[in-house]
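[09:14] KT: can someone run the structure on this one? pasting the chain below
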Amino acid sequence: MTNDDLKRNVFEAIERRSDEIVALGEGLRRHPELGFKKVKTAHVVEETFRRLGLNPRTGLALTGVRAELP
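[09:31] RB: done, structure tokens below
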């Protein structure tokens, strides 16, 4: 797969989920939390990763969440 193929695939995936991505961002914007106290935001990110079939790691730098693509 070339870099252009990869970019095209990513853009298409973003376009397919654009409504979901915008809704996620809007939900986070409507419920702001202070830095290093983003407990609810971390939970939203963790659940979003799980829905995408990823295995999130939590508790990183207090409220950090990460997942690696397979």
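[09:33] KT: thanks! Residues 3-16 form the longest helix (14 residues).
[09:34] RB: yep, looked fine to me
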